[in-house]
Specification:
627 residues, alpha+beta, GIY-YIG endonuclease, 5 domains, 5-stranded mixed sheet, 21 helices, disordered C terminus
Length: 627
């Protein structure tokens, strides 16, 4: 169970991306934060004028998750990638779905250009980015073109050589005019290499040159030019911020790291597609107490990629694995092209692996605490109940309830809890056969007799057939029988068990005047129970579940009975035609709205019968105003 208040306390004070889910696990919203602890908690504070859309989103939040990053810039880029991948409903309403800018070098052209781009394609071009500031990107491109005099036009070479006069950029010293044959391919390539060197992070030569020009302009009292160089310096430094969430290589790769504790390990996989981190998933590995991290990683890679339909070009692992070369060959054969298994030691790739390991540690820590809480409210709660009643052990509990309206359609329900958890596959419902009228005790007696007689019969059949394993939910008898009521219901159960010579403890779930669980009735006395305890909460859940299951069954029977009673009043409509009508039209309202020709489309309904059906509904409506 995800307890929001508890999870909010565990949020790290680090940058990252948070993902809000509803109870169906649909992603509602993805956002970034400089401080996850402060940002996520802000959603659950009293309303401070956030607006109706955000209030609506917050009301739907059932649980959240997050991915930590090393910087706000990484969080921002990751947020954009995840939003594009999942298109959450409330991001569409609340956020600008813009894309981030890249610097594109058109390496496929004879004289490459450095241009601005909002998308990364799989072509011959080289991409740098993404960046967070479009203005800085444009300033940098302008700077590169000014310093290295690269062309900006869209002319096609060699087709457009000498077809026009050189452009203005050539006249002001910003283009070498390859269109006029003024520069050789070698000279142009040399300048392009300097630009690529700059884009690859070698900023020192450019920064020195800009600082020199700024100083010269200042000494020459050309302050406007000095200010321009200063602004360009700031633009270069802004663009120079490195981030590692997106790889400009545009490759498909999986980043795999783990966290281990005692007998369990969590594997975290970051999925990078087309150079973008589009998502992550974690996987549990059990019984790993004697294995090293490398051995666990190797086992995971073999098992996971044996079944996954997509194999990326590169696996980046946290540890060196023994069978790396063999696994490379195997994956390359499966993919049909070369696959690499690598362990990055330095740089952005190594930091990505480190991030995956950090997220795996967070998942493991949260999972450990969740399991501890879950055990407290399930197994721990069952132990509390056993101690309260003086029983050595309680694993299986069965609870029974009766539902009717003034004795109409008496039904019984049986719900089963094992280890403190609902076992819905063993739920059973009973339609009372021997009791007419509102007699809950008699109804309960029939339900219990049928349940235990059936179980004893199944057990005999199992022994006769020499079956080692139990079959049928009735063969397992409970460690504790829970009755929805006090002394009267308990005595009925004890009477049935006594007649069958079964020694099963029986406990009544006593309610107060407000129909809320008050305590337990056991061995002829009412035992108080702490309303704050997990044992009390479990008893309440079981009692509510038995009641819900009985009511739903009774409601379904009542609904079917009402439909049958209406259709059975129509002349010429018997069981076969009634079933055909319901199968074709799905609801009584559709039957009532149908025309005679529509009714005749059903093979079992002839024209005469269709007219009777139409006449029945429409005359009733005309004469009485409804059904």
């Amino acid at each position: 169970m995800f307890l929001i208040e508890e999870e909010l306390k565990k949020l790290p004070k680090r940058p990252g991306v948070y993902i809000m889910h509803d109870k169906e696990d649909t992603i509602l919203y993805i956002g970034k934060a400089v401080n996850l602890h402060n940002r996520v908690r802000s959603y659950f504070r009293p309303n401070i004028g956030r607006g109706p859309q955000i209030d609506k989103m917050v009301s739907l939040i059932d649980h959240f998750e997050y991915i930590v990053t090393d910087s706000e810039l990484e969080a921002l880029v990751l947020e954009n990638n995840l939003i594009k991948e999942h298109s959450p409903k409330y991001n569409t309403l609340l956020k600008d779905d813009k894309t981030y800018p890249y610097i594109k070098v058109t390496m496929g052209e004879e004289y490459p250009r450095v241009v601005f781009s909002r998308e990364m394609k799989k072509d011959k071009s080289r991409y740098f980015g993404p960046y967070t500031s479009a203005a800085s990107v444009k300033d940098t491109i302008e700077l590169i073109n000014k310093l290295y005099q690269l062309r900006t036009c869209r002319k096609k070479f060699p087709r457009d050589f000498g077809t026009d006069r050189p452009c203005l950029n050539h006249h002001i010293g910003r283009c070498m005019a390859p269109c006029q044959g003024n520069v050789s391919k070698e000279e142009y390539a040399e300048q392009l290499d300097k630009a690529l060197d700059f884009l690859n992070g070698n900023y020192s030569p450019i920064l020195r040159e800009l600082e020199q020009k700024m100083t010269e302009a200042s000494e020459n009292l050309d302050f406007e030019e000095a200010i321009r160089y200063r602004e360009l310096l700031q633009s270069v430094r802004s663009v120079a911020q490195k981030q590692k969430i997106t790889d400009s290589g545009g490759e498909d790769k999986d980043i795999i790291a783990l966290a281990k504790e005692e007998t369990d390990a969590v594997i975290q996989v970051f999925f990078v597609r087309g150079g973008r981190l589009i998502g992550r998933e974690h996987f549990y590995m059990t019984h790993v107490s004697d294995d090293s991290k490398a051995e666990i990683l190797q086992s995971f890679v073999k098992q996971f990629y044996a079944g996954t339909p997509f194999i990326p070009r590169e696996l980046m692992l946290q540890e060196e694995i023994e069978d790396a070369r063999v696994i490379e060959q195997w994956l390359s054969q499966r993919k049909g092209s070369r696959v690499y298994v690598r362990v990055p030691k330095i740089g952005s790739k190594e930091k990505l692996v480190e991030l995956a390991a950090q997220n795996a540690s967070l998942v493991l820590m949260q999972d450990r605490e969740r399991i501890k809480r879950e055990e407290g409210r399930t197994i721990g709660a069952a132990r509390e109940i056993a101690a309260l009643l003086g029983l050595k052990h309680i694993h299986r509990m069965e609870a029974f309830d009766i539902s009717n309206i003034s004795g109409f359609e008496n039904v019984g329900s049986m719900v089963v809890y094992e280890g403190g958890k609902a076992k819905r596959s063993d739920y059973r419902k009973f339609k009372i056969r021997s009791v007419s009228g509102p007699d809950d005790y008699a109804c309960m007696k029939e339900v219990l007799e049928r349940r235990f007689l059936h179980g004893m019969q199944e057990s005999r059949e199992r022994k006769e057939k020499n079956l080692d394993q139990e079959f049928g939910s009735f063969t397992k008898f409970p460690d504790l029988l829970l009755m929805d009521g006090g002394k009267g219901q308990v005595n009925i159960a004890l009477e049935v068990l006594g007649e069958m010579h079964l020694a099963i403890p029986v406990c009544g779930m006593v309610k107060d005047d407000n129909h809320r669980t008050r305590g337990l009735y056991y061995n002829n006395e009412e035992i108080p129970i702490d309303h704050r305890s997990e044992g009390f909460k479990l008893i309440t859940r079981i009692q509510d579940e038995a009641h819900r299951f009985a009511i739903e069954y009774h409601r379904s029977l009542r609904s079917k009975s009402q439909v049958r009673s209406v259709l059975d009043d129509i002349p010429g409509v018997g069981p076969a035609r009634r079933k055909a009508l319901m199968r074709h039209f799905k609801s009584l309202e559709e039957i009532r709205s149908a025309e005679i020709t529509q009714l005749c489309e059903i093979p079992e309904i002839n024209e005469r019968c269709a007219k009777e059906i139409y006449k029945f509904f429409h005359e009733k409506i005309d004469n009485k105003g409804g059904l």
